Amino acid sequence: MTRCDWAEDTDDLMTHYHDYEWGVATFDERETFELMTLEMMQAGLSWQTVLRKREHFKQVFDNFDINKVAAYDDTKIDALMNDAGIIRNRRKILATIHNAQLLVKWHADGKTMNAYLWDYVDGQSIVNKYAAMSDLPGKTALSEKISKALKKLGFQFMGPTIVQSWLEALGILDDHLASCTVNHMSE
User: What residue numbers does the annotated binding site for Zn(2+) cover?
Assistant: First the structure.
């Protein structure tokens, strides 16, 4: 089996994520919020660092239950800031709570983030066949457009690079290399 360069010769978490999650279409709102949060937390760090902390994130963020996260208070924020098992960045934690609060309002209006994002691509994954990892863009016109729209809607910590990674995590963008034999969208 040939994998994308970033998933070759790495730990089991990265390999599993590459083989079974990255580029796989996601239509679950809770998972969409989880990946939004993890991508925000990853900013400035490695994805491997985030994956190693993922299970603990799930525990302390109530399995990314949007309603529960939206209700976090100062006591919970303090507990999160003191938990060495997660990435303790106050701005990222506050942005996660803020974004959950916005999503609660969306849900009350019958909207979901998942449907909103998939509407940008008419419900179809964009499959790219890059020749090398150096060809993968850090951001695209699509991620810039969505980032700008999300910021206008009040979402925080949603820059185009974070959105690009998030779209890949959700399978909206399938950016496996052409040489990768783990290409979920073409199966």
Answer: 4, 18, 176, 180
